[in-house]
Specification:
With about 325 residues, this protein is mainly beta. It has helices at about 20-30, 90-95, 110-115, 185-200, 230-240, and strands at about 10-15, 35-45, 65-70, 85, 100-105, 120-125, 130, 135-140, 145-150, 155-165, 170-180, 205-215, 215-220, 240-245, 250-255, 265-270, 280-285, 290-295, 300-305. It starts with 10 loop residues before the first strand and ends in a 12-residue tail after the last strand.
C-alpha cells in the first residue's frame, strides 16, 4: 500500500523549553515521593541500550534530540483512515537525519500483518542502512502475539509519538521509583510534576523505562472497528485489556503542553523477552512496582500530518 508523501503533508517544528538537567532532577526529586515510597533521580550517563533488557538498536538517546508526533487518534477513531500509512525511514530521509534513532509508541504497520496492531518503534538508520528493532503486538485467535519486524519493513500507520536523536551515549535523566503509594502511573506522575513546576514553559522528554518487578495493565488493539467509536467508553469496550508481568521495556514520550499542535501529552508502549507487551496504562501491584527510566530532554517537537479535524477520544 502506498505510503504518505511527506512533501504533500504539513510538517511544523516548534522549540521546547530546555531547563538544565539538574533542575529537572530537583523538580522530580521533590514531587515523585508523593507517588512512590522510594525515589532516586539523577543526571547520569546513559547505559548501553543495545544490551538487555533494553534491546535498542543504538547505544544512547542523545544528539539533537527532538520529539516527533505523527498523525493522531482522529485517524483511528471514530473510523479508521486506511490511507494513513507512513514510512519511517522515508521520514528520516525527509528530515535529513542520518545517523538517527527513532523510538516510541504508535500503531504498527497493519498492511504488513494484515491486521491492526500496537507498535513499539525502534528504528536505527546509519549511512543509509536501516536496522529495525521494532516489535508489534496484535490479537490473534483471542490472545496477543508479539513479533519483531524485519529490516525491510519500515512502515507504520495512523499515529505515533517518538523520540528522534542521533542515538549517541551521553547524559540523561535517570529515574528509579519503587512501591507506588499514589494514584498516578509512573509517566503521569513525572509529566504532572514537570507541568506543575514549569507551567506555560513546555518541556518534553523521550526515552525508555523498564518495569523491573511487579505487573502492569496494558491494552492491545484488536482489528479495526467496523462501527463508529465516538467516546472513550466505546474505545475501551473495543480494546482488549491484559495484566502483564515484569520485566517489560517501554518506549515513548511525554510533553507538558499542547503548544497548539494537537499533541498527545504522553504515550508509552512496552515489549518483553517473554512475549508480553502493549500500550502501558500503569502497574497493578503497587507494593511490588519497580521502575528504572532513562530520559533525554528534547529541544523541539516536530508535528507531522496533524488531523485537520480533531477530538480528544482515545488518548489515554
Amino acid at each position: 500500500m502506498t505510503s504518505i508523501d511527506y512533501s504533500t503533508v504539513e510538517i511544523k517544528e516548534k522549540p521546547l523549553y530546555t531547563p538544565p538537567l539538574e533542575e529537572i532532577v530537583e523538580v522530580l526529586s521533590r514531587s515523585l515521593p508523593s507517588t512512590f515510597e522510594y525515589v532516586s533521580v539523577t543526571v547520569d550517563e546513559c547505559p548501553d541500550l543495545t544490551q538487555a533488557p533494553y534491546n535498542i538498536t543504538a547505544p544512547g538517546l542523545t544528539g539533537n534530540a527532538k520529539l516527533v508526533e505523527l498523525g493522531g487518534p482522529p485517524y483511528l477513531v471514530p473510523l479508521v483512515r486506511r490511507d494513513k500509512i507512513y514510512d519511517l525511514a522515508a521520514l528520516l530521509r525527509h528530515l535529513r537525519r542520518d545517523p538517527a534513532l527513532l523510538i516510541g509508541a504508535g500503531a504498527g504497520p497493519w498492511p504488513f500483518l494484515g491486521v491492526n496492531c500496537e507498535g513499539i518503534i525502534i528504528l536505527r538508520v546509519e549511512s543509509g542502512r536501516v536496522q529495525q528493532g521494532t516489535r508489534v503486538v496484535s490479537m490473534a485467535g483471542g490472545s496477543y502475539r508479539q513479533q519483531q519486524l524485519p529490516d525491510s519493513e519500515t512502515r507504520t500507520a495512523l499515529l505515533g509519538n517518538y523520540l528522534l536523536s542521533d542515538g549517541k551515549p551521553g547524559k540523561v535523566i535517570k529515574v528509579v521509583a519503587k512501591m507506588r503509594i499514589g494514584k498516578a502511573n509512573f509517566i503521569t506522575a513525572i509529566r504532572e510534576a514537570l507541568q506543575n513546576h514549569y507551567g506555560d514553559k513546555v518541556v518534553g522528554l523521550g526515552g525508555v523505562f523498564v518495569l523491573r518487578e511487579g505487573s502492569g495493565r496494558y491494552h492491545v488493539m484488536p482489528d479495526f472497528s467496523t462501527t463508529e467509536l465516538t467516546s472513550d467508553e466505546d474505545v475501551n469496550n473495543w480494546l482488549t485489556f491484559h495484566e502483564m508481568k515484569a520485566p517489560i521495556t517501554h518506549l515513548g514520550t511525554l510533553v507538558t503542553g499542547d503548544m497548539e499542535l494537537d499533541l498527545r501529552v504522553q504515550h508509552f508502549h512496552g515489549f518483553s523477552a517473554h512475549g508480553d507487551g502493549g500500550h502501558y496504562h500503569g502497574d497493578t501491584a503497587p507494593a511490588a512496582a519497580h521502575y528504572e527510566a532513562y530520559f533525554a530532554l528534547a529541544a523541539a517537537v516536530v508535528r507531522v500530518d496533524a488531523p485537520a479535524h480533531t477530538h480528544h477520544v482515545g488518548r489515554d
